[in-house]
Amino acid sequence: MPSLCSIQVRYTTVVTLLVLVIVVVVGTSMDLAVRYRVRDEAFLNAEKIVLRWSAQVRGGHLPHPIPASAGVDLIQVVDARGRIVNSSPQTGRTRLSRFRPEPGNRLQRRTECLPGRQCVLLTADRISPNADSPVVYAGTAEPSILATHDLEYVIAAAALLMTVMLGWMTWRITGRSLRPMEQQYQLASTTSHELRNPIAGLRLQLEGALLYPDHVNPRDTIQRALSTTDRLEAIVEDLLLLARLHGGEHAPHEPIDLGVLVTEEVGTPAPTMPVHAEVTGNVWVHGSRTQLIRLLSNLLSNARRHAETGVTVWVASAHGQAVVEVTDDGAGIESADRERVFERFVRLEDGRRRDATGSGLGLAISRDIAHAHRGTLRIEDSACGARFVLRLPLIEGK
């Protein structure tokens, strides 16, 4: 199965290549269209001028020299012997072209490029079918857009910029679309690894009891199996909760007095460390009572597990937020591990030693619940032990 990163690379590559092909085709078509339009317009202007002066030649009213007009400044009248009879001042004494239209095709377009000189777009008109008929030439120097590759450079730069931008957008959009799949893939991979160990241990215990019934105490085997089953059950329940949180399932929300909720949770009988709660003022939030109870329960269980003599919970409001601090007086958490402990199935060595049956998902679930309530859960500095700080949007006016 290809990795999700390779899928993202593949989609981005395909889209980028497709865009590149399209912009190359469009850019080439645009380049040809612009060149044809500029060239055709130059020839049409020259044709109008050459027909005008041809009529003047036939009527015998041709001025000397011939004035330039309509942007066409290169005009010559050449007789049948190739002598310049009349011309515009800009042409000099050099013939614009040695081409003479045939009697049956009197009006023709030419592009003349003499060595060392700029190319000229000309229209030639034979005055009459007679052999001694003069020819009128009119034209203009080839525009720079046709004489250089500036147009191609501009189109190529625009095409490259468009390709890069669309490729980058495709990468971002594909990555955003695949992010949930990446998270599910990672969760499934980590979950399978974490479930494999207790299942393998359970199988080993049961197989040992079957293979060596005379050397194994059935009661001890059943107790160990039940302990392993409890851990598997805890992992499965936590995974289901994570799936609901990440699946967009919305639990019913209601106004909740966070101080009362904390006081009730702290007052729940527990055989371990004592917990002292301090509530300052009315602290109301809008959220799921069940999920917030789970979050507080996870924080209190974690604090009790690592405390030496007790746990302190402080509830107050500050800067438009409800703040809950859960502090223990244990060994604390190193700065390098403060974000790591919120990852799924991560359990530090001290936590494994104090509780071997934990799922390693409690803090990850707690942070996900905080995010689901548009809040944050972080570990902040403390003079002693670990200090977990929960911040949630405060309901004003309560």
Oligomer: single chain
Strand order of the largest sheet: 2-1-5-4-3
Strand content: 15-25%
- Structure class: alpha+beta
Low-confidence stretches: none
Terminal CA distance reads: 54 Å
The arrangement of helices and strands along the chain is HEEEEEHHHEHEEHEEHHEE
CATH architectural group of the largest domain: 2-Layer Sandwich
Number of strands: 12
CATH class placement of the largest domain: Alpha Beta
Tally of distinct domains: 3
Number of helices: 8
Query: Nearest-angstrom radius of gyration?
Result: 43 Å
Q: How confident is the prediction overall: mean pLDDT?
A: 82
Range of helix content: 40-55%
Descriptive keywords:
Helix Hairpins; 5-stranded antiparallel beta sheet; Heat Shock Protein 90; 12 strands; 398 residues; 49% helix; single chain; Beta-Lactamase; alpha+beta; 3 domains
What can you see in these coordinates?
The protein has 398 residues and is an alpha+beta fold. The two termini are 54 Å apart. The chain contains eight helices and twelve strands. Helices cover 49% and strands 18% of the residues. It folds into three domains: 4-148, Beta-Lactamase; 177-246, Signal transduction histidine kinase, dimerisation/phosphotransfer (DHp) domain (Helix Hairpins, Orthogonal Bundle); 254-393, Histidine kinase-like ATPase, C-terminal domain (Heat Shock Protein 90).
